[in-house]
Amino acid sequence: MRSCRFIRTDGSPCRSAPIRGEDYCFWHSPAHAEEADEARRLGGLRRRKERTVAGAYEFQGLATVADIRRLLEVAVIDTLSLENSVARSRTLAYLGQTALKCLETGELEERLALLEAAVKSRDLSPASDFDFDLDLDEDHDPKELMP
Ligand SMILES: [Zn+2]
Questions:
Q1: CB proximity list for 15: less than 8 A, separation 6 or greater
Q2: Contact 105, 113 (CB under 8 A)
Q3: What does the CA dihedral 69, 57, 75, 48 come to, rounded to 10 degrees?
Q4: What separation in Å is there between the alpha carbon of 45 and the centre of ligand 1?
Q5: pLDDT (tens digit, 9 = 90+) per residue, 65-98?
């Protein structure tokens, strides 16, 4: 398959699919340079705004239970600050349910981490004094076990 003919400053090719009937992709097409510049500018503004808003709310994404909890906290505080209404009460009840689910998931995550740590430390530690093989092979005389 054909790819964009643009060569980066490091000498590597662009590899994006070219625009139909052109040799370059959207980002490198001389015919679309203005559009591409505008798209880059808007993308930059969007990313800057995203960082500003995320910073203002101390929001770090949705990767962990703690992150999701932070999002719920923000939503609860914003909802609480609204005038009382049936819709506000419904939203708060929904946020409460979601928070409960989040707490359950967080608790499971912690328990799993503890279990994984326990299993890992058991694999690494030498056999404990209490570990022994109960040898029940048939070649043993059963009387050996008798007092
Ligand atoms: Zn390209």
A1: 3, 4
A2: no
A3: -110
A4: 22
A5: 999 999 999 999 999 999 999 999 999 999 999 9
